[in-house]
Amino acid sequence: MKKFKVSLLQLDVKFGDPEANYSNVEKYIEEAVQDKPDVLVLPEMWNTGYDLERLETIADKDGQRTKTLLTRLAKHFAVNIVGGSVATKEDGKFYNTSYIFDRKGQLISQYQKVHLFGLMSEDDFISAGSTLNQFIIDGIKAAGVICYDIRFPEWERKLMSTGQQILFVSAQWPTKRIEQWKMLLCARAIENQSFVVAVNRVGNAPKDSFNGHSLVIDPLGKILEEGATDVEGIFTCEFDLDDLKAVRGNIPVFDDRRTDLYF
Ligand SMILES: O=C(O)CCC(=O)C(=O)O
User: Fold this and answer.
1) Which end of the chain has fewer surrounding CB within 10 Å, N or C?
2) Where does the record place the CN hydrolase domain (predicted)?
3) What was the pLDDT predicted at 33?
């Protein structure tokens, strides 16, 4: 039996206000560790929100501020952190970047969102990444994606096809499409026979509102935990990774793939 405890930080994000957001994230991490989770998970673009026109002023230069904060907290509390994502500026370009830290505070993966969301003009301001986000936390193989990425099952399949057991998702997914969020995430869990741990933000931005529904989903697509709507909060859930063995053994979809016909 390998129990794994996750804490989802379903936070509000103050539009274009990094000072308020860094301070809020630190406060919530200090509170979340009281439950002694194995991993903390943050939402998407939590430093700036989608204040894309002001990125030159507010994006995190080379992710330094974010890395310094999350490294310190991961090490101090001996907790793994899937750091959601932040707006960064690197080599003159802007990215939607995720950083992952282990319990020693070491940066074990970093990822720049590969599918940019045109409906929120993300592609007008941000450059797309092109690397996989696979990592190992406490000996467990895992992968991470950001928001719109979940609409591309080929991407999650590629990430999950070398034994990954947990898919982490960080998002700013608007209220008006929240039913799609839930269905897409349940489908990603079922088809990849993996746990899905997905954090969405709450609150309002000038053009959108967000109502949480952060989710922990088991490999059969059953929702184990669902964040209440419209409230900032920490949602903690423990699951048994041994459950994967039965699911993958009974219906071995990875083995049954026709890779001679498709990827
Ligand atoms: O795909 C969607 O409906 C939402 C995606 C999104 O909001 C994002 O990628 O930031």
Assistant:
1) N
2) 4-241
3) 98
Instruction: Give me the helices (H) in 2-79, please.
Output: 18-32, 55-58, 64-77
- β-pair type (195-200, 166-171): parallel
Active site annotation includes 147: yes
**Active site annotation includes 207:** no
User: Annotated catalytic residue: which of 147, 156, 186, 237?
Assistant: 147
Indicate the SS3 state at residue 84. coil
Query: Which of 148, 209, 213, when mutated, tests ligand 1's pocket best, judged by the most ligand atoms within 8 Å of its CB?
Result: 148
Nearest residue to 234 via CA among 20, 94, 36: 36
Which amino acid residue places its CA nearest to atom 9 of ligand 1? 148
Phi/psi class of residue 121: alpha, beta or left (left: φ > 0; alpha: ψ in -120 to 50)?
left
Rounded CA-CA distance 131/143 in Å is 12
| 61-83 average pLDDT score | 98
Is residue 186 flagged as an active site residue? Answer: no
Return the percentage of the chain with pLDDT > 90, whole number: 94
What was the ipTM of the complex prediction? 0.96
**pTM of the full structure:** 0.97
SS3 69: helix
For residue 155, the SS3 value is helix
